[in-house]
Amino acid sequence: MTLPLFRAFVALHVLGGATALLTLWAPLLARKGGSAHRRWGGIAARAMMLTGVAGFGVGAVTMVRPLETHLTLHDPVWIRGVFGWMMMFLAVLTFSLAWHGRELLRQGDAWPGPHRGRETALQLVVLLFAIACCWQGWVIRQPLLPAMALLGFATANNNLTLLRRAPLSRVDRTVEHVKACVGASAAVCTAFLAVGLVRLLPKESLHPGWWSLPIVAGLSLSVYYERRLRHAAAPTPRAPRAAGRAAVPPGPAAQMATGTLARRGT
């Protein structure tokens, strides 16, 4: 029963992640706020949340049956740390970011609206799993786990700060929406690495270079879109007005009047 359940979760994880990564390009390239952006963005967000739920299932089954689910590995403590705790952490992070990014636009000016409790609870769950990921990294002497947990600490701190600042301006909501969606995509790619590298390149599966690729790409895209959006929303500076009006030469009538007065004076 355990192995079929594990394979089902892996299949859903791959299906959701592939759908999210393929459909994400449409809202990134489409006109922001348009019908295509909303339609494909909604599909990508739901696919990311499915990826998170399935990834959590993969990690949970791994915690129960580590050796049966990872036949090529032989250390159950190490398997639970990397493919159990870290996988569940990445799954919770992915779901949280996808939910957060979607709700920022769905609620609009009213964000977080009636879902403040859910938003807060999600960030607290991310914090708890980030702490667990750090602890497991210390247990199995694997520095990759605390490094990944830093993303969870930063994300939860940022989103809890936004909840305290709410309501947000339209520009801030748009920027945070993009950051959350890009971050969820990076988390999906990272979770894919956890599943794929151990099968394709087992000796290189935990090399920091592989794991840094989606993180660096996600941070770069986030910075690029934030600068672009804030620059587009910045007010256009106006040219400074002159201190006074320039002197206007008198017209013909004034010149004639001046000449007439001058002749009378003489």
Explain what this protein looks like in three dimensions.
By secondary structure, the protein is an all-alpha fold. Helix content is 79%, strand content 0%. The chain has 10 helices and no strands. It has helices spanning 2-23, 25-29, 35-64, 66-69, 76-107, 116-140, 144-165, 170-200, 208-233, 252-265. Helix 5 (76-107) packs antiparallel against helix 6 (116-140), helix 5 packs parallel to helix 7 and helix 8 packs antiparallel against helix 9 (208-233).
Keywords:
elongated; mainly alpha; 266 residues; disordered C terminus; single chain
Topology:
Layout: H1 2-23, H2 25-29, H3 35-64, H4 66-69, H5 76-107, H6 116-140, H7 144-165, H8 170-200, H9 208-233, H10 252-265
Helix pairs in contact: 1-3, 1-8, 3-5, 3-8, 5-6, 5-7, 5-8, 6-7, 8-9
Number of strands: 0
Q: How large, in whole angstroms, is the Cα Rg?
A: 29 Å
The helix content is: over 70%
Query: How would you sum up the global shape?
Result: elongated
How would you concisely characterize the structure shown here?
The chain has 266 residues and is mainly α. The protein contains ten helices and no strands.
